[in-house]
């Protein structure tokens, strides 16, 4: 008998590593799964359980995750939970790629039709050239190949998805015909229907029920048959590290928009006020994070161009008021650009129209205020140095006749006076020599007649 056909009892004292996939599948999810499987292998775990509730996600990330599951030396059980959860689109592929496929009652699976980067469903429309029921064959008995509907790229994507999902289903003896329908017809199944059609292996009320059913269950892992021993296993909840959490946050399209806006504001403020430093540093960091996120999520660059045009128009409105024409145009370009930029149709990677419109309005108001405020600052002239000190009114810190100290603009200064000065008396700066001020005492009446420094 071949070694691969001999049931091998796994380590009965091994842990069960539990991963949680909740939400859209992306690069962060793929990294999280890879880390979890590596942790399970290093700790000698008995089983990896993936609690999954997902609307789908990126095809590239899904394929990386499926490959990691297929090549894992530790058995993987994907469990669609809690009640009301789903394993749609990319989640269907991951469920079928797992050594064990399980679902909670009132969950569902399916709708695995691939979506192009334009957000369009690649399922071909009905073929208008296909013969209808009751049609008579041609007189010569020959059949004519009807042109396949859809573009060549759509057919290529669809056929590739069909072959891939059939291969995953056939690997563990599951219903490959239904798996194909999940792609070509966006078919879905409830947990009970999936069990009856041999799409999944178990229905479990909760994790404890699942582990009880899996105890003694045999699975094929890297050409070997392994009998699971999950009774009394210790649960090891594996949490993502800070890097994966950060990636998950910045890979959200709405967060990308916020990072981009903060970055642009920071750089613009730094450009108008050289030496501020903090806005420039924050702006560069935010833009770099946004640029990285744009590499790992689907983006339409026509939308990005519209966003840049919109920002330019709003800046122009602040410099050259046009009674709102440029500002409104900028807001419209920003809103439409944001929608187009992320409207890929990939589950979990779209943006809320309400969020985009609100962000556009806030951004317009802020940028107009920022530019107006900056221009006002430039018109004020010097607000520091000699230009702001001479003519300023301070307060004597002590009694002195000749040399003493005065308090001016939140600082203590050395001062010289040709007249006696009393403590707490108001003094006006008439000249400045280095860091020494020449002052003269003034009365309250004189202070009221002085022009305020602008």
Structural descriptors:
elongated; 454 residues; 15 helices; single chain; OB fold (Dihydrolipoamide Acetyltransferase, E2P); 2-enoyl-CoA Hydratase, Chain A, domain 1; six-stranded parallel β-sheet; alpha/beta
Q: What percentage of amino acids are in beta strands?
A: 15-25%
Q: How many structural domains in the coordinates?
A: 3
Contiguous uncertain segments of 5+ residues: 1-13, 117-122, 127-147
| Name of the CATH superfamily of the largest domain | 2-enoyl-CoA Hydratase, Chain A, domain 1
CATH topology of the largest domain: 2-enoyl-CoA Hydratase, Chain A, domain 1
Which class best fits the helix and strand makeup?
alpha/beta
What gyration radius follows from the Cα positions, in whole Å?
35 Å
| The CATH architecture of the largest domain | Alpha-Beta Complex
Shape: elongated
CA distance, first residue to last residue? 96 Å
